[in-house]
Amino acid sequence: MAEDDPTRGENRPRPAREAPRGSGAETGWAVTGTLISGLIVWGGAGWLIDRWLDTRVFAPVGIVLGTVVAIYLVVARYGALPPSSGAPTIGKDQGGRRSRPRTQKGRR
């Protein structure tokens, strides 16, 4: 239709669809890189502060802090998978409560 086509020089609207998800190997490398970079960046910052102040306490604190922050980022980014659209809800009724158990043959 004529009104659906953008006029010359206008941007076309992008179709609404989900962003492509990476493979399992890509996700694994991303998680590994996040954890290692957290250790290196925060541990390195602690080491630099230790060299500057002539102490030996900030490098271990930086390593622990980097690990905690990296784990938080990994859980926030990759922690929960969205439920599949056709997932069966076994044993649950519409309200989310467990349904009554089915009776065995011959019992009411």
Give the gist of this structure:
The protein has helices spanning 24-53, 58-78.
What descriptive keywords fit this protein?
single chain; 108 residues; mainly alpha; flat
Describe the structure.
The chain has 108 residues and is an all-alpha fold. The mean pLDDT is 79.
Structural class: mainly alpha
Strand portion: under 5%
- Distance between the first and last residues' Cα: 63 Å
Task: State the total count of DSSP E strands.
Answer: 0
Helicity range: 40-55%
Element-level helix/strand string: HH
> Spans of 5+ residues with little confidence (pLDDT < 50)?
none
Biggest sheet character? none
> For the CA atoms, what is the radius of gyration?
26 Å
Helical element count?
Answer: 2
Average pLDDT level: 79
Overall geometric form: flat
Per-chain topology:
Layout: H1 24-53, H2 58-78
